[in-house]
Amino acid sequence: MPPEYKAGLTTATLEADVFSFGILMFEIATGKCPNLPILLDGKEVGIVEWARKMLAQNKHMKMVDANISWEGGLIEAHVKEYFEIAGMCTSETQKERPTMAKVFQLLNPIPM
């Protein structure tokens, strides 16, 4: 849920949709359920906080779901870029989130 909804916003916004898309990106690539806590350093955190800390520690490859086929290889730079885009989408501040057009522009060159 976007932070602004927790603060009382009740109307749908494009920025909230971008936040939700970022959550979906994390869920797809990590295999983690966004509404279940994740244990990190002995503390339960949400998927966004977990992802931010993992990225800050340069552990993006450890974030990838073990069930994703590595056949053909995953390129580390592409994985990092993908997670960084998801991180932009899930920014705490609405104004810092990219538009969906910008997200498309950033994701499009990454081979899938």
Automatic annotation (TrEMBL):
GO terms for molecular function: ATP binding; protein kinase activity. SUPFAM superfamilies: Protein kinase-like (PK-like). It comes from the Eukaryota. Residues 1-111 form the Protein kinase domain. One of its GO terms (cellular component) is membrane. This is Protein kinase domain-containing protein.
